[in-house]
Amino acid sequence: MPDTLRKPTLDKDLDKLTTIEQATERVSRGIMAPGLSLIFVLICALVAALLMTGQPGAVVIVAAAVVGAYMALNIGANDVANNVGPAVGARAMTLGTALIVAAVCESAGALIAGSDVIGTISKGIISPDAVSNPSVFISAMLAALVASAMWIHLATWLKAPVSTTHSIVGGVMGSGIAAAGLNAVNWTTMGSIAASWVISPVLGGIFAAIFLAFIKTAIIYRDDKIAAARVWVPVLVALMSGIFAAYLSVKGLKGIVKITLPMALIIGLVAGGIFWLLARPLIAKQSRGLENRNQSLRYLFSLPLIISAGLLSFAHGANDVANAVGPLAAIVHTAEAGEVAAKVSIPLWVMAVGALGISLGLLLFGPRLIKLVGNEITKLNPMRAYCVALSAALTVIVASGLGLPVSSTHIAIGAVFGVGFFREWYTSRSQRRADYVARRAADQSQPKAKKTSSEDQKHRFLVRRAHFLTIVAAWLITVPAAAILSGILFAIFRIFIR
User: Fold this and answer.
1) Closest listed residue to residue 377, CA positions, set 210, 217, 201
2) Which residues form a coiled coil (predicted)?
3) In the predicted structure, residue 1 carries a pLDDT above the cut 70
4) Are the C-beta atoms of 307 and 382 separated by less than 8 Å?
5) I need a surface site. Which of 8, 195, 292, 323 has the fewest CB within 10 A?
6) Whole-angstrom Cα Rg for the chain
7) Which residue has the higher pLDDT, 452 or 338?
8) Crossing angle, helix 81-89 and helix 294-337, to 10 degrees?
9) Which residues have a Cβ under 8 Å from the Cβ of 179 and sit 6 or more positions away?
10) Whole-prediction pTM value?
11) What is the pLDDT of residues 78-137, one digit of tens each?
12) What residues have CB less than 8 Å from 166, skipping those under 6 apart?
């Protein structure tokens, strides 16, 4: 029979089977992350049920464990992206490597240096006397936890990195008002938190722009980039080391030992000197044989950037795990003791829920915001990403000295925007850059620079305005949105919790 008369039925069936397999694989990818999250939440509920069997308030504690696990997953999905996103966007490490490094460092920071004692009325927002009734207090904390988790979940879906600290603050404020009225709120504390919405991202952006301006002036637009890098990269590594040593002393190790700010600065100076001595021969060795171009500089900045991302994740785990498990620990203590305490200890199993939940949330849902922070706001390379990491640590140190409550999310995102907006200004206004480009174009031995008219340079946007407006809007409504939702949930929970 001629081939033209044959029906390729087998080929058609095989094509259909292949299409079905591909469709099934895509669907399974979509449900795998929620499925694993559900399994984690159920395991947390089971552990809480086994540990609390026969204890007073066991049902409430199990419900709180479920909500705490959900909150931790959302913190991992949203907040941790700020620590590793710039390094991924700069291609200093792959997304998979970033997820592993961040997950390990977040868990280590939470379990090793996480705060073992916290205030039950988050950050002194609500007067303890206003919610002294145990059932009212449990309802308020549970409502705050659910509301903040739901808001962070929505923000992650909208691709808006928000402050988990501000979310839980808004949740506590809303349930506190619903429980005891406006007079229950410490408005002085709320005022300082509101001020940090503006101060922390602006400080982060300014510091990042200053660091980037220095790197451009001292290294990038020098005729001999490699020689300049041999001098200044060890200094920048020392500065990073000193700042992180002070940062971890003040914030990351507060659960182990109490260190004052002057002591932390001394530790930072010593650490900076040591790492400067170590970095000089290392950078000299790495720079041998490198070509006199920006790609070589990116290589020299990559390793310090990876280390800074890990340290930021460690410090974040040490500090922000309390956002997930603080209210949960307060509920556990109140349900067991039958009274509201000013401060409570966090049980190990509660801390494990927070640490593992943050890491799992990062692994399952973190890539969405990591890509946003690293690639979609502005273009980052290792030098620019290094400025973001350095700025984040320095801003926290300065804010701690000023006594300002700040958000690591706001600082990191502010630093990314600061780098992008500075590049826009520098591209159109810098005479040093213009002279450098002209010299390079005139040098026949170098690749000719891309010709761009001055008018084009002035209208060249290097920051995506849509993301800027979305993120700022999300920041502004985080506290009121979490507060309103928490107040509504509190009224519902009071029907069931008596």
Assistant:
1) 201
2) none
3) no
4) no
5) 8
6) 26
7) 338
8) 170
9) 130, 131, 136, 139, 140, 490
10) 0.79
11) 887 788 888 888 888 888 888 888 888 888 877 776 655 555 455 567 776 777 788 888
12) 193, 197, 407, 475, 478, 479, 482
